[in-house]
Structures are given as structure tokens and as C-alpha cells.
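Journal club side-thread
Mid-discussion, someone asked how the predicted structure for our own chain would compare to the paper's figures. Pasting it here so we can look after the session.
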Amino acid sequence: MRELYELMAPCHFGLEAVLKREILDLGYEISSVEDGRVTFLGDAEAIAVANIFLRSAERILLKVGSVHATTFEELFDRVKALPWEACLPSDAKFWVTKATSVKSKLFSPSDIQSIVKKAIVERLKGIYGIEWFKEDGASYPIRIFMMKDEAVIGLDTTGESLHKRGYRKLTAKAPISETLASALIMLTPWKADRILVDPFCGSGTFPIEAAMMAANIAPGMNRSFLAENWKNLVPRKHWYHAVEEAQDLIDDKIETDIQGYDIDGEVIRAARENARLAGVDHLIHFQKRSVSELNHPKKYGFVITNPPYGERIEDRANLPALYTEIGQAFSRLDSWSEYVITSYEDAEKYIGRKADKNRKIYNGMIKTYYYQFIGPRPPRRETGNAIEKREK
């Protein structure tokens, strides 16, 4: 019988439901959903599958345990009591890469990191019978989340965050992350056979992520992960099998209507290069064009976009005119649905319409709103059988 682990997948605050659905679609059982994190049960193979296939997760952590601690002495003793030898070999290179503390008596991240490292070393000294660890083997970074004196501790299987798909070599200013873009697309009813336009495409993240979904390209196919070197926990065959499965699922012959516009020609060139690196440049039409020129003859399309927020003070004066232009463009797109993520508080006022739905999402430390202007559903396509029945 395969050993089951608790695997933790952090995500953007406000997008836990999207990640939960992704994990369920992969066939894994959810054990808990908290703010910014979904925990699920999976075997060693699940570590490889989750890293390669999940679009909205930030990383995959292997949960070692959770401890209650209100003093550093308690923290030391309880972390030392965890079975670290089950996951850290004697040559492991391990360190506490990040500690966060919310509403807890222990609030200093650097002190928490130091105490936890010491506790693990003391545990492993007794287990392996050695006084000094060379730490010249595989890397096992450790992350700790403290909430109300409860510390959850996990090993980072991923390494560089999962938003680093490997295709975005060139970025525009204020880019949206790949994981956030994917999650926002998945919050809409958009499917590959529907039109999608991003009139502020920047380095191309929304169109590229949409094209990867349309072609069923797994987001983690073209990058490496720390746990590939954890031979004691995840056999190499699991990584090979997951990548082979991902390759078998690709359908890049699909026909799409995905478009990205930007007013800056240099940015459009960068977006095209990023799309080429992602293997989806043939599925996206990029064009230098302003939002005032946004138009499309077809009905029932989608706009999904991340317009300027006015991060710099000198840009804020331009926002009312810009969002008025956005609203005018939307009014020309009869029967379309529009989805806008922005931190601009007056977005609805100048777009000239109240959103049908509005979701608060944290983009890093910036509080943003995902305004959803939902258009009508397209009429159902009749099959040949339905037409034949009516004619009879």
C-alpha cells in the first residue's frame, strides 16, 4: 500500500476555490481549505503530478507536522519530536527558508527559523549518530506558517515558485503572475472555442496562459523542481511518468481566437517571444493597438485584462480617462463578457457600469478587485440529430 502524505498548496488569497477544483480534477482528496492554502492527500507520485499540472498553486509543500507553541522552548521540543529522519537523509542540505507568524506569541521570523533549525539538527544527531552534518546532498528547504500559536511545517518540493513556468524571459512593468492569470481565467466560463481578448496584454501572460489551457499544455512541463533530487521520497520514475502523461495530453493543433493588444510595440514584441518560448505563438494574435480601438465583429467573446492601476503617482491623473475608454470599448462589444482585475477604486464609476460580480483578491501585497461584467450565454448549438427531429 502506498504511503499517503499531506501536501499543502499555497495560492493567492481569494482563489482557494479555483485551486481546490484543480486538485479534485487530478483525483486527490482535499483535507482542508484555509485562507491562501489548500491541503490534500497524495502519494509520492502526487508530488510530481501536482507540481507539473497545477496552474493556480504557488508551490507544493510536503507537510512534516504541526505543533502548538507559545514559547521558544515549546517550539524547540515539539519540532524536535517530529520524525525528521523520515524525510531528511543524513547528507540533506536543509534550512528554514521562510517563517510567517500571524496572531501568535512567537512573532519573530528570524528567531523561529533559528530555533527550528537547531531542533531538527538535535533530532538528527541522535538518529544518525553524528555531531556535524556536511549538508552536501539534495536541498530540502523548510517553510513554517504560524497562526494563533499553531505552527504548520512543510518541506518545499518545488523550489522556484510555480509561477515561473520557464517561458517569461521578457516582462513588462507591473506584470501579472502566471498562477494568478490562470486562476482568473478559470474563474470565468471561457473555453477554448470562445474568443478571448486582452487589450492590455503586457508581456502576454493572460493570452499565453489561455492558449496553454486550450492546447492542454501542463504549466510545469518545461522546468525542474527541487524534489526531483529527493530519491529517498520521490522515485525518478514518477517525474518521467508525469511528464510523459503531460506530453500525451497536448493538442496544439486546436483552433483558437486568442488576441493580445498593447499600445507599446516593444511590449508586443516581448509578448510574441514569450509565446514562442511557451510553444503557443501560433495560437495567439498579438497586435500593437490601444484600448480605444478595441472592437470585434463576433458575439459572445471574453475580455480578460489587467489594466494600469496607477501605481506611480504621476500616472493616477490619467486613470479616469483610461477607464472611461475601457467602458466605451466594452459598450461596443455587444453580448461579450468582460473581466477586469485592478486596484483602482473608481473603476466601475468610469467604466460606467456596476459589475455583476466583484471578488477581492490580493495580488502580492496589493488589494485588487476582480470586476466581472457577465454577458448573455450564446445560444446552444443544435446537433444534426436535433435538426433532423424538428424537420420530421
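Post-session note: Residues 386-392 have pLDDT under 50 and may be disordered.
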